[in-house]
Amino acid sequence: MIFVFPGTSKSQDEAHLSEVEALKIKNSALLRDLEEVMESRDEKAKENAGMAAKLEHMDKELKHAKEALSGRLWADSVGGTRILSNYSLSFSWIDWNCYGLHIMWF
User: Phi, psi (5° rounding) for residue 99?
Assistant: First the structure.
């Protein structure tokens, strides 16, 4: 479809139309790029949320380990192994052996 405006020639109208088509193509490409960037951003946000949850869990484990090592938790001797409990009744096994202290939280 060609629009003819008063005072313009057919070649000028065709030039404008080709310019409009080129801009439409460029706009479509930019929209595709934007969609890719937004998808990538969403994926990174999910990864960051997962890493934040892991870091929070590790921070809690570290806190429990520090409390256990500082003696803030009550201890009950069972042979060469001590069972420690914190206030929320989660347990850890502390195994004393010739290599040092091993802590396993569950």
Answer: -90, -10
